[in-house]
Write a structure and sequence with these properties.
Layout (H helix, E strand, L loop, with lengths): L5 H17 L3 H4 L2 H9 L12 H13 L2 H12 L3 H34 L4 H12 L18 H7 L2 H7 L4 H30 L1
Helix pairs in contact: 1-5, 3-4
Amino acid sequence: MVRSGGDKIYNVFDNQFPAALRKLPFDRHLSLQNVRKVVSEADGYQPHLIAPEQGYRRLIEGALSYFRGPAEASVDAELRRFPTLQAELAAATNEALERFREESKKTAIRLVDMEASYLTVEFFRRLPQEMEKAGTPANQATPKEDRYGEGHYRRIGSNPKQLSQLLDEDPALMERRQQCAKRLELYKAARDEIDSVSWTR
């Protein structure tokens, strides 16, 4: 006789779960015919003779996948009998997620405030030095010198595809900007030509 409470849970794992495992078709899955078929389709170094890696994976993964149904059933077996408990668990879970989200927001804001409050004297002391180094070629800058320099711009420029996705400019404005740039180049060329003519005179 199975009593209420923990005995029902023990009954699920001691009786129902093992009975479900015994019904799994391992004999068919690990039969000689199926193993021969899987190994013959394997890949790897000399796959059919020495190392049928893919065959081993298919056999093991296929066998383990049979455990999913009984495992899920053992979890849901008692929970389905108590719909009120199931609803309360779902509500408590959602409430906990909402509470964790608020805590996450507070933590993120706290981290930003901590970074903002960590501006030391050394940071402001380095600012003039970094401004003087702005004209230094990139290949002459050491990692230590580039701590507050142009390193982040180089990282951004190293991934132009992602940058273009983030800066998806309006096509009409982009076309107008390109036309203005071409017009500016024509003006500059005309100015240089006029200057060259005036100097020859």
